[in-house]
């Protein structure tokens, strides 16, 4: 199970990096995700945003 979660995290990191470089390609890749992968990606991204917001506040 951990390797599956690691794979999802690697994919999420890739998608975030891709969004910074090429948003159109990012949208194509996100459309390919399974519902489970999309849910993980959304939650992972929210956690990253919350961490960034906390860092800015401090």
Give a structural overview.
The termini are far apart. The protein has one domain. The chain has helices at 2-21, 23-31, 35-57. By secondary structure, the chain is mainly alpha-helical. The chain has 3 helices and no strands. The radius of gyration is 12 Å and the shape is globular.
Keywords, separated by commas or semicolons:
single chain; 58 residues; mainly alpha; 3 helices; globular
Briefly summarize what is shown.
90% of the residues lie in helices and 0% in strands. By secondary structure, the chain is an all-alpha fold. The longest helix is centred in the last third of the chain and has 23 residues, at 35-57.
Task: Give the helix/strand layout.
Elements: H1 2-21, H2 23-31, H3 35-57
Helix pairs in contact: 1-2, 1-3
Low-confidence stretches: none
Average of pLDDT: 89
N- to C-terminal distance = 35 Å
Structural class category: mainly alpha
Main β-sheet: number of strands, strand sense, barrel status? none
What is the 3D shape? Answer: globular
Please write the string of helix (H) and strand (E) elements. Answer: HHH
How much strand content do the residues show?
Answer: under 5%
- Helix share, percent: over 70%
Number of helices: 3
Would you count the extended β strands for me? 0
Total separate domains: 1
